[in-house]
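pipeline: protein-struct stage 2 | run 1193 | Exodeoxyribonuclease 7 small subunit
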Amino acid sequence: MTTDKETISFEAAMEKLEEIVSLLESGDVELEKAIELFQEGMKLSHLCGQKLELVERKIEMLVEENGSLTKKPFQAGTDEG
């Protein structure tokens, strides 16, 4: 069974997450609604993290070694420069 959350695009999830953050930061939301929004935001954040991780696994870097270019998997957070 798939839900809208599982099929939502990264960009749509980020946009919804930004809306939620804006609402929560405004302080004009009742406590129950704020908790509901927070939980939805956490789910969207997790979903975005998963989508980014999948993309990172697909990205390859071209690295020059001994005068020739070779492909290596991209590893976020490493700086070889």
